[in-house]
Amino acid sequence: MQDSEYSLRKEIISTCLAMERKGINQGTSGNVSARWQDGLLITPSGLDYDTLAPDEIIYLEMDGTPHGPHSPSSEWRFHRDIMRERSDVHAIAHAHPVYCTAHAIVGKDIPAVHYMIAAAGGSTIRCAPYATFGTDELSRAALVALEGRLACLLANHGLISCGPNLRKALWLANEVEVLAKQYYLSLQIGKPVVLSSEEMDVVIGKFKTGYGPKAKV
Description:
Blueprint: H1 3-21, E1 31-36, E2 39-42, E3 58-61, E4 66-67, H2 76-85, E5 91-95, H3 98-105, E6 127-128, H4 136-145, E7 151-154, E8 158-163, H5 166-189, H6 197-208
Parallel strand pairs: 6-7
Antiparallel strand pairs: 1-2, 1-5, 2-3, 3-4, 5-8, 7-8
């Protein structure tokens, strides 16, 4: 195993552990992947992350063939399909954070109630319609919800966060959970004020030119 591959496997595990520390994920429910050579490296199914070893991370070919001592995550299809369809995505974090999942349970998009929504690439965080976990149907729904975006909710399920590397995918997952919590709390106070599409176009333009919090990650 190349040193670079071993380091990436270790980083996948550290990303999973960081999701636990940040409260983004619980137990073995989430999964993480990173593009590697002509396929991807992905967490195995059902193993505790605090005891996971680098050689237990699964290498998955783009045709879905796994290589490793365990089965790949049950959600390997959307990890594979997103990376196959999106050349800009090199890392994916999937989790069931409390506030994101609460919005997903009621099928709610997160609107532009804060300018940081633009960190995910658009003026909303879309919620994909429900489909059974691990299915092609879920993968197709996720791809639609991610069009022009780096994050989406999955109805009655959780969150997908994408990035050019694991660090940014993790950062965005945490940011979207913060936004979901802010939106939830604002709904308790009154009717949230949604930023105009014109203002969001300005903000999105600033982010694309390297301005703002996203550029510092």
